[in-house]
Design goal:
- The chain is of the alpha/beta class and 405 residues long.
- It folds into three domains: 2-141, Rossmann fold (3-Layer(aba) Sandwich), CATH 3.40.50.10770; 147-204 and 345-396, no CATH class; 210-343, 3-Layer(aba) Sandwich (Rossmann fold).
- The protein has helices spanning 11-23, 44-52, 69-75, 88-97, 153-163, 182-186, 194-206, 215-220, 229-234, 237-240, 250-260, 269-285, 297-309, 322-330, 348-355, 392-403; strands at residues 2-6, 30-35, 58-63, 80-82, 101-106, 126-130, 134-136, 147-151, 169-173, 180-181, 210-212, 224-227, 245-246, 315-319, 334-337, 341-343, 361-365, 368-375, 381-385.
- The strands form four sheets. The protein has a seven-stranded mixed β-sheet, with helices on both faces.
């Protein structure tokens, strides 16, 4: 069986189109990638990913140039052609000339599709077959070997979503005696120890399942924003990225540095929060600015903000602390006080990443444990598949490496 895929200058769209077909049950003997120009990369990593799924096709590309009469002839040589990644004209040629099946993966919010396979749940993607306009179902595709993989936030989200194809996904960690679903955790249908619950509350805020109404002000203001320590700890990059202009405080850096430097191999919950805060501070700002005050705590933050006001036309302090907000306002500093909570759609990959900074995580499908997750560093986790058929972490890692080259 010969599968055709339209090539694209975005490796991710070509890669995902191929994977959608495999998860739709296609087992090709040969994959032909149709391009205008010779590609700048080889497709060896795609072969590695397909092999992990038990599929061993020959992969080759055909560069057809801009003589579009050649495209119709080329399309007639394949049994299925997926036009998701291609130009409109090549998709039209495929639809009008292909003797086999023509398919397109439809995603309403198309921009979300430029991520690794699984980042968007496959349940949200409609694989449409022309000319009948019928929807082709995608379902779980088992892997064939065990192994470990290192995943970042995006990869963890993709892995989790692929696991949902196999059944109900649940976790155990810390003091939890039995695995529970994400929904049960978010709805507080299980009892955690006080220490676990406090840390989990931080995780769901950083992951965006709980947000603040006042975050809208951060995205809308033209002011230069500066943040107190708790914003880095409790909310992190998710909120910091919303600001158009930022200026870091040296006192905040020093506080984060003081706590985060003292941890051992397994940080305490408080140390884990500060490690995450320091990682996000460095990610957003780079090196810290010089110090404007010898004071620490709220007093130091206000004094430093007052000094910055002399050099910045418009400065606003963002804080979770009501007392600090009131004291800053009394000194003439504009503030955004984050205090009105609301539920929102979160990022499960960020939840896993932050949670694993403090505790190992076990992932289950139904009653069967399929993977164990451990902290590697503040940005990545190490995932070990326990059975050959459940190694989606390795699949995602291979695909990420390919599309990011």
């Amino acid at each position: 069986m010969r599968l055709g895929i339209l090539g694209s200058d975005k490796l991710v769209t070509t890669t995902n189109a191929l994977m959608y077909e495999v998860f739709a049950g296609v087992v090709p003997d040969e994959v032909v990638i149709f391009t205008e120009d010779p590609p700048k990369t080889t497709f060896d990593k795609l072969s590695e990913a397909l092999l992990l799924l038990g599929v061993k096709p020959k992969i080759r590309y055909v560069a057809l140039g801009e003589d579009f009469s050649k495209w119709g002839e080329a399309f007639s040589q394949v049994d299925i052609v997926d036009v998701t990644p291609g130009r409109k004209i090549t998709a039209l040629i495929a639809a009008s000339t292909t003797k086999g099946k023509v398919r397109y993966a439809y995603l309403k919010e198309e921009v979300r599709g430029y991520r690794v396979l699984g980042y968007v749940p496959l349940q949200q993607i409609r694989l449409i077959e022309l000319p009948a306009f019928k929807q082709v179902a995608m379902s779980a595709k088992h892997t064939v070997s065990v192994g470990e993989a290192t995943l970042d936030r995006e990869g963890l989200t993709a892995m989790y979503n692929l696991y949902t194809l196999l059944g109900e996904v649940s976790f155990s960690f810390g003091s939890l005696p039995i695995p529970v679903t994400l929904e049960e955790l978010l709805q507080k249908k299980v009892t955690l120890t006080q220490e676990d619950q406090q840390y989990f509350n931080t995780c769901i805020k950083r992951a965006g399942y709980i947000q603040y109404e006042e975050e809208k002000e951060i995205a809308q203001t033209q002011d230069t924003l500066t943040f107190d320590t708790n914003v880095y700890i409790e909310l992190g990059e998710r909120v910091l990225r919303k600001a158009r202009k930022t200026h870091p405080l040296r006192g905040v850096y020093d506080e984060l540095d003081r706590v985060s430097l003292g941890y051992n191999k397994r940080p305490t919950p408080n140390e884990a929060k500060f490690l995450l805060g320091m990682a996000d501070y460095t990610l957003i700002h780079g090196a810290p600015p010089p110090s404007y005050t010898k004071r620490s705590g709220d007093v130091g933050i206000i004094e430093e903000a007052m000094e910055l006001k002399k050099h910045l036309e418009a400065l606003t302090l963002v804080t979770l602390d009501q007392a600090l907000a009131q004291r800053a306002k009394a000194r003439g500093i504009r503030t955004i006080h984050l205090h009105t909570l609301r539920k929102a759609q979160g990022d499960v990959g960020e939840l896993l990443r932050t949670l694993a900074q403090y505790t190992d995580i076990q992932i289950y499908i139904g009653s069967e444990q399929v993977a164990s997750v451990k902290r590697e560093d503040t940005n990545t986790l190490r995932v070990a598949a326990l059975e050959p058929q459940h190694n989606y972490a390795r699949l995602v890692q291979i695909l990420q490496k390919f599309i990011r080259q």
